[in-house]
Amino acid sequence: MSPPFPSAVEAGNSVPPRVTMVVAVLTLAGTAVAFVQSLLFPIVPLPPRLLDAPLTETAWVVTGALLCAALATTGDGTAR
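RE: above sequence
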């Protein structure tokens, strides 16, 4: 039984165009997520001042934001 789609070697291409597009989109999405999450670090000193509490007690703000971003990235329904 032959596969439903010819392999890249049989078709004469080294990489199918669809695979290249998927890799490009995933690379762009990963870069965008990393960039947006890195924007959080300049505000690390702000929660202690805003909440009038020591930094050790406000670290959960940064942890929570990063955790929510990680869960939203993988759970938005686009990765199948």
